[in-house]
Every structure is written in C-alpha cells, then in structure tokens.
Amino acid sequence: MQAAIEEARKGLAEGGIPIGSVIVYKGEILGRGHNRRVQNGSVVLHGEMDAFENAGRQPASVYRECTLYTTLSPCSMCSGAILLYGIPKVIIGENETFMGEEEHLRARGVEVVLADNEECKNMMKAFINDRPELWNEDIGE
C-alpha cells in the first residue's frame, strides 16, 4: 500500500488527483501508476489504469496471480479492467470519499480488502476540500 500512496503523492505534486495504484506479482511490483487525467488531458488514466499501462503486456496467467493495491475504491472503468485481466485480489486504501464498484468485484469472485488507511483518507479529504471543482469533474458531477 505504501507504494500506491507514494504514487498518489506524485500525482498530487504534478497538479493532479492523488490516487495511486500498484500491481504486485509474486511479491514484486509489476506496474505502478497514478491518476494522470489532468497532467495528460486523459479520460482514462486513472491510477489503476496507469498501473496496468505501466505493467505492460502480460499473459493472463500472470495477471491471475497479481494483487492490485489502490488508494481509493476503484470506479466502474477500473473495476472493469480488474475483471478483464482476472486480478483475483484488490486491496483498497479507503472508500469513505468515494465508494466504487466493490460489490460488483466481490460478486465476480474478486477478493476485496479494505485497508481503511488514514493517510489515504486524509490525502483525499484534503484534496477534495482544496480542489472540489477538479474532484467533481473527475467523478462526473
């Protein structure tokens, strides 16, 4: 989770939304990323999607043995990628500021673990307080 938090901090330092993610395979980080929607003018580079992009093209057999760590509950798009690539376990830093598709993931057999991490919560709450217009744009309000 600490590596995902570091990614979230990078995103914030770049002027973006502080959400980070890492994909771990057999104890090693395969891909890491952070929300780059603002920095790249992207509609798809959420933290999880950036981590997938940076993990690169991997066989399905690899992804089926990975754990994805994310600082924030994954949205519909990111949950779709988790399901598409067969990630069996997702560890979520926090879901108080945004509740993603956790139940959908569970219903499809993904083990979802809520870390309830105070650093993740505090970072998102501060960001939402400081940049509500950017947060609301990202979540479609």
Can you tell me about this structure?
Strands 2-1-3-4-5 form a five-stranded mixed β-sheet. It is globular and about 40 Å long. By secondary structure, it is α/β, with parallel strands linked by helices. It has eight helices and five strands. The chain has helices at residues 2-13, 37-40, 47-55, 60-63, 76-84, 102-107, 118-130, 132-138, and strands at 20-25, 28-34, 66-72, 89-94, 111-114. Helix 7 (118-130) packs across helix 8 (132-138). Helix 5 (76-84) links the parallel strand 3 (66-72) and strand 4 (89-94).
Provide keyphrases for this structure.
141 residues; alpha/beta; single chain
Query: What's the number of extended β-strand segments?
Result: 5
Order of helices and strands: HEEHHHEHEHEHH
Instruction: Give, in spatial order, the strands making up the sheet with the most strands.
Output: 2-1-3-4-5
What's the average pLDDT? Answer: 95
**Can you give the helix content as a percent range?**
40-55%
